[in-house]
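Progress note, sequence design subtask.
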């Protein structure tokens, strides 16, 4: 069974950086996607970005483009989310999630924001001024 575990998070000031990690295992399908999501207080959960295992393609949501970077080890067992130039509005609980696909996928808005089956417990990121 697929398991997803996040680590990292914490309290930082605006402009600082933070790195989250996601360890995922148990995949058996032809392809899988690991995504990062954020849920700010009182708001719905939104996709931040994702990486596709088969081709390494990556997609980012507009608000984080140029500031957040997704990377992985060669086996894509660990996926990191490097968050730079953090803003107050980045304060949220961040989740790592995964989904398996029977066919090859390409990173994009739909692939990276919908249909995720396996979720981590979430980690709090708080950005203060």
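Output:
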């Amino acid at each position: 069974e697929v398991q997803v575990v996040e680590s990292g998070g914490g309290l930082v000031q605006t402009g600082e950086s933070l790195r989250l990690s996601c360890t995922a295992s148990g995949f058996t399908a032809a392809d899988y996607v690991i995504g990062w999501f954020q849920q700010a207080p009182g708001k719905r959960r939104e996709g931040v970005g994702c990486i596709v295992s088969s081709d390494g393609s990556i997609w980012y949501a507009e608000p984080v483009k140029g500031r957040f970077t997704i990377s992985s080890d060669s086996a894509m067992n660990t996926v990191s989310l490097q968050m730079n130039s953090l803003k107050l509005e980045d304060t949220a609980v961040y989740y790592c999630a995964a989904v398996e696909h029977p066919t090859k996928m390409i990173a994009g808005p739909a692939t990276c924001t919908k249909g995720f089956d396996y979720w981590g417990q979430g980690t709090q990121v708080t950005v203060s001024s």
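The chain has a mean pLDDT of 96. Work on this subtask will continue into the next period as scheduled.
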